[in-house]
Amino acid sequence: MDIDAKLYHRICVAETKDGKNFVNKIRSDMPQKQIDNRSIKLCLDIGCGPGNVTKIVADTLNCDMLVGVDIDPNMIAFAKQNYLAKNIAYVRQDFGAPWESLAPQVRQLEGRVDIVYSSHTLQWITRRDNVADNIRRLLAPGARAYLSYAGEPYYKDLVTNGFVRAIFWLLVWVGWLRSEPEHEQRAQYARAFEKGGLKIVSHERYDGSHK
Ligand SMILES: C[S@@+](CC[C@H](N)C(=O)[O-])C[C@H]1O[C@@H](n2cnc3c(N)ncnc32)[C@H](O)[C@@H]1O
Question: What CATH fold (topology level) applies to the domain 5-150?
Fold first, then answer.
């Protein structure tokens, strides 16, 4: 992805709303005592972008420390400039990379992360087995990952014109365009997580926003 961090930050209204709703849902799953006692020691935000949602996550869950990772150096620079806090650090990292090649700042979190959070990101990462493996290695025993990702548009849902559909079909067939039905995209992640040794507690579909 190559997005202008400043521009994305200006226009990411829907993503911010989704992030707020999602983290409120996560919070409502937790005992109030856990929040009040600041017992969430370490969180990770995969694909932190410009950092605005990361800050909301850190504040809402009252995390002792939150590490935001993003593949894009401009996003990391923007986040450091605008959403840095004593309990937030940002690291440039392609989270689809294999464990052995992750940055030392990320690998040193192995087995210690209480909550892995991600929103509007995982659909971009095609190396799903690596994502699942990295999450499994980072989570503390018994800890949870809360992952929200968008289904990529499927060409059959987008295109009604027969001729254009045929061109899309051809591009998919030769492998120049990746397009799968949403249920297949979800199944892929489910398979990757299960193969990576993660137990799926719940896999829900949201229409538009987390309620
Ligand atoms: C749509 S933005 C979402 C940002 C933020 N989570 C939010 O909800 O506003 C997707 C982010 O994922 C990041 N990203 C894409 N591929 C990634 C990868 N392989 N590893 C880490 N971050 C990635 C992009 O750089 C971008 O900042």
Answer: Rossmann fold (3.40.50)
Q: Ligand 1: residues within 6 Å at CB?
A: 1, 12, 15, 19, 47-49, 53, 69-72, 75, 94-96, 119-121, 124-125
The backbone torsions φ and ψ at residue 87, rounded to the nearest 5 degrees and listed phi first, read -105, 15
Closest atom of ligand 1 to 49 CA is 27
User: Would you state the pLDDT for residue 99?
Assistant: 98
Q: Strand, coil or helix: what is 114?
A: strand
CB contact set of 73 (below 8 Å; sequence gap of 6+): 92
The domain ranges of the chain are: 5-150
Beta strands in 10-61 (DSSP E): 42-46
Instruction: List, for residues 74-84, the tens digit of each pLDDT value.
Output: 999 999 999 99
CA atoms within 13 A on the CB side of 28: 8
Q: Which helix (H) or strand (E) holds 61?
A: helix 52-61
Question: Is residue 195 over pLDDT 60?
Answer: yes
